[in-house]
Amino acid sequence: MTHTLPIRRDVRTGHPLNVALSLAAGGLPVMPLRADKGPFGNCPDCTGNACGGRPNMKTPGPCQCPRPCHGWAAATTDPAILSSALWEAAWRRAGAVAYHPGGAGVTVVDLDHVAAVDWARTTLPPTRTVATTRGEHWIYSGTTRSVNHIRDGVDLKSTQSYVRWRGPGTGNMTTLPDVVRALAMTKPAVARPAARAVTLAAPAGGGQCPHRSPAYLERGIAMAEDRITNASSAVHATVYRTFLAVLSAHGRCGCLTERHVGRLFTVAQAKGESSRHCADAWSNARTALGM
Q: In Å, how far from its chain's centre is CA 274?
């Protein structure tokens, strides 16, 4: 069944739980987001997907855990679940509300900056639009697969994904066009943000790598991947701290390559981080270290 996003002006603001209940009443599957706008980590029983529920958040369907676990799969329209005691702590710490576009029968073209919006206006059929902090969400009726970074500043959010609720938007929602479905078949360039971020200064002492063996770097990258993959909460903060640690150990000798950074971005995105968040975390870590 295809739903329409609620056109309700009274759910633009207010306590996240009240917003979520209003949206759920209109048929929109919703979930809380942390203060940093990322999904809540899995509960202790589901850490590392020990429950077998949603490995890597790739299995279709709702999460069976009574807590807001497994990212997008936690989204629900059930007011009893949203208001349950097990979700209370998440709502107390929530900074925003998100919805599962695929569960609502829609696709969101997430345009992250002005240039991306200009591209959409000359390329895509008009539809309902929602203003965001730096760009717009274009919402079409119909679902497709979600793909990050199909081009600079453009993500597709539909099945197995979540989108922050920013209001009902304006304009009439149109049917998902073939041009957007074609975009969903584009392979994302996961490591593209890293190509801009990785411009590392060589050390003053001739640029020789101080590490005794390439295995030292490989162990460091593998440990960083494990740290991000196994994060059960505060994923955004964990990604930043991990990037900071990698750059602190390996960022000044010139031994890091785009392949290494691409590996870190890949595992971070598998935990729900967007390519923009990865690029920002990498850039902020470099700034903190004076690079």
A: 4
pLDDT tens digits for range 172-216 = 999 999 999 888 876 544 433 333 333 333 333 344 455 656 677
pLDDT of residue 4: 53
132: left (phi over 0), alpha (psi -120 to 50) or beta: beta
Q: Is the pTM higher than 0.90?
A: no
Mean pLDDT calculated for residue range 79-106: 93
Are residues 62 and 73 in contact, defined by beta-carbon separation less than 8 angstroms?
yes
Hey, how many other C-beta atoms are within 10 angstroms of the C-beta on 115? 14
pLDDT over 70 at 281, yes or no: yes
**Taking the alpha carbons of 159, 162, 167, 169 in that order, is the dihedral positive or negative?**
negative
